[in-house]
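Reading a protein record of the kind used here takes only a little practice. The record below shows the convention in full:
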Amino acid sequence: MGDRYEIRVAGSGGQGVILAARILGEAAALRTEGLNAVQSQAYGPEARGGASKSEVVYDRGPIDYPKAAHPDLQIILTQKACDSYCHDTNKGATVIFDDFFVTTP
């Protein structure tokens, strides 16, 4: 692994997906000198229950692309998110599933 580290949190609206990524991004950037962090998010138009995804990218150098291409850590909270995003996990990465909602990893 280089200096770049990618995290994706994916689930549905109302699960705290965006808040979790914001906390991860701010905590690392504020507590680790010389570490840059960027957070991006995407969500459906529904107020609650629609697809939701948020990503955090850390790097010691400039971050030229703010999206996670092959996450080193994924937190997957719904089956739909699993079906959509698990295929691009980085080799050797960690994937955390909510086993109540994700029945087929």
In short: The chain has a mean pLDDT of 91. The first strand starts at residue 5 and ends at 12. The beta strands are 5-12, 36-43, 51-59, 73-76, 94-97. Residues 9 and 18 are 8 Å apart (CA to CA).
